[in-house]
Amino acid sequence: MPSLRRPSVRALSLLALLGLTALSACRRGAGEGEGVGPGAVAGAAAGSGKRPVVAVSVAPQAELVERLAAGAVEVITMIPPGTDVETYAPSPHQMAVFSTARIYFEVGHPGLPLEASYLAPWLARHPEVRRVSLAVHAGEILPLEAVHAGGHPHGDPHLWVSVRVLRGAAVELAGALAELLPAEADSIRTRARALDAELAALDAEIALRFRGSEGRRFLVYHPALGYFARDYGLVQEALETDGKEPSPARLAELVESARRAGVRVVLGQRGMPPRSVEILAATLGAKVIEIDPLAADGIANLRRIAAAVGAALIDG
Q1: How does pLDDT run across 207-236, given as a tens digit for each residue?
Q2: Structurally, what CATH architecture does the domain formed by 9-23+214-312 represent?
């Protein structure tokens, strides 16, 4: 964006209002939600069926398991949709269900306390659990400066917003499922080939959409699209600072800069404080488009995210 000037009194007053009305972004308490996302089983019966259990961290991963296994496994999602992946902690019930898993499809990023602080110590004592990781297929983990000023001390953990990461992990996951379910191995491999073709086509479709847009920016409330942006040569600019609402003065600077750049669309996020984004958009005369990186239909959701980012690209 163009260099920043001293924010106007009007912008400061509007953003002061924003600072007063903003809520902390998507911060639900430990154990809330009881991992009953897509594929998860609620209640005491979870993990007690005859099907082997496969655990995943976030809902978009569950979709891959279900597409490959086609009901042959019981899928449990450890971080429920609508919660904060960066602070969520499991309940004792979730840990009890997790202990029945034969495969754990993890994000594999140290920025997720669920994995690093709660599940990794248990897994270290149970090497018999097969682990499949998104991070193995992510290449270089985006550093802090590529995400936003402050926040993730270990870089960006939102690996599942990359079609390319999902595609690589799906191949590894299919191999693990085929070993777990030898009677289903041929069917799993057939589904894996179909899924790989679908993900490859989606990647090509999104790449075509953003061809010629390399280096263009988009304004997003929470910096969850770093890997998506990297895949297609885009730049996300986040309103959050250090994982928190920016100060009124910082928001005023952002408003002035965004106005000069001609921002007409701001990307909000499900679970984030809508009032804050609405006031910011009203200040800019911009439209808010809400995205949900944790949507259960992760593959179709990436197409929706692509459309939203396309609408939010800043000219020049």
Answers
A1: 999 999 999 999 998 889 999 999 999 999
A2: 3-Layer(aba) Sandwich (3.40)
